[in-house]
Amino acid sequence: MDDKAGGYKIIHDGIHGSMKVSGVILDLIKTPEFQRLRQIKQLGLAYLVYPGANHSRFEHSLGAWHLAKRLSEEVGLPKEESEILQVGALLHDIGHGPLSHTFEGIYKHYVKERDHMRLGQDIILGNINITGDEDGGRIPEILEKYGIDPKAVSGIILGKAEKPYLGQMLHGGVDVDQLDYLVRDAHYTGVAHGIIDLERLLKVMKIHDGQLVVDEKGVEAVEGMMVARALMYSRVYFHHTVKIAEGMLTRALEFALDEGHLWDFWRMTDCRVLVELEDLEGLPAELTKRVLHRKLYKAAVLITAEELSTEEKRELLNAYRNVKKRQEIERNLADAVGASEGEVILEFSIADLMLSEPRLKETGINVLLDNGEIQPLTKVTPLANALKRRQTPRWAVMIASPEKYVDRLREVWRRVIFS
């Protein structure tokens, strides 16, 4: 990471302390695309439940870079590979839209080519200038100046690294992205579950036969991370009040899009999308105001996966994959209880998790035993299997509405959805 000009900056981070940045990393941080991440909350609307959760994708991206740099040193990566990993970690969230994962479920239906991973790739390859700023669109130029291939960086972000262990360091069973967000999110929400032994984890990771593995003596640290991850998902990321707020704002955006507004929402920052939605008349404005003033719908139905038959699960999963089908169910539920359109929302956490965090059920990290054998984590610790089976979050289906419709919804929801 040689710095052509010899300059550097010290950034003080609330989690990792002082971080020295220079060279390509400093140049990338200065771009409008990276600075934009300051305006995107890491945890979307979770601040409505956890008031301290105001940290941004900017901080998390710096943290992921810092851990990538440290992990590179621990495992002794060659300079070129270390650069690819560090830059990949810094830019892995560069394509995030407003409020992070809040709108993830509707990208597929409304703007297929604009989910945050693909958008990130387009930004890194210079195919799009997301900020519209005259200084924007220069990321590939900066990378090339330092002899770094933009294609290799976009590849590692999409989990398609030339060397498997490089991809695993950024998107794997234990990776620098997860390690940073678990520690950071636990700190800013005040939820103690996310506390993990970061130092130990960085020390016990090794490269063996082209794969990232964990030394046998580090198994307890990995177990701790997996427990922290499962608990953070049920306690924070899928807290039902957070999901109600996100569901309401998603419906506001869906109605706006259906009316031909805000089709460039994926370019916006948090504040901008909220102001634009509030400025629209009718339902989008009404729902957005309710979210901003925390006048949220109440959970009428919260049920676990065990309470659904296989057929019911399949039906709901199909509905959740098809936005129009889900909207139709919501309209039918609203009609059945005398509510207006947009006053009943249906959330299905299992489908949502598949979209936003496929790694949650990931236990696919191998352990290097003292005798030189390689075993999957699930064979070494029963905890890995137990966590895989654990229902995360506790609820699978949630239906929410203004309080006056709650009792009636509880009576009719099953008949309306499954008859």
Q: Could you characterize the architecture of this molecule?
A:
With 419 residues, this protein is an alpha+beta fold. The protein has a domain at 8-190: Hypothetical protein af1432 (Orthogonal Bundle), CATH 1.10.3210. It is 53% helix and 10% strand. The chain has 21 helices and 9 strands. It has helices at 23-29, 32-35, 57-75, 79-91, 104-110, 116-124, 139-145, 150-157, 164-170, 176-189, 198-204, 219-237, 240-258, 270-279, 283-292, 310-321, 323-337, 349-356, 377-380, 382-389, 406-418; strands at 8-13, 17-22, 205-208, 211-215, 298-303, 345-348, 366-368, 374-376, 397-401. The strands form 3 sheets. A 4-stranded mixed sheet has the order 3-4-7-8. The protein has a 3-stranded antiparallel sheet with strand order 5-9-6, sandwiched between helices. Helix 4 packs parallel to helix 9 (164-170) and helix 10 packs across helix 12. It is globular and about 65 Å long. The termini are far apart. The mean pLDDT is 91.
Strand content: 5-15%
CATH superfamily of the domain at 8-190: Hypothetical protein af1432
Contiguous runs where pLDDT drops below 50 for at least 5 residues: none
Range of helix content: 40-55%
Structural class: alpha+beta
- Count the helices. How many? 21
The coarse silhouette is globular
> Which value, in Å, is the CA radius of gyration?
22 Å
Strand order of the largest sheet: 3-4-7-8
* Overall strand count: 9
At CATH level 2, the architecture of the domain at 8-190 is Orthogonal Bundle
Calculate the mean pLDDT score and round it. Answer: 91
Please summarize the sheet with the most strands.
Answer: 4 strands, mixed
CATH topology label of the domain at 8-190:
Hypothetical protein af1432
Q: Helix and strand succession?
A: EEHHHHHHHHHHHEEHHHHEHHEHEEHHEH
Q: For the terminal residues, how far apart are their CA atoms?
A: 62 Å
The top-level CATH class of the domain at 8-190 is Mainly Alpha
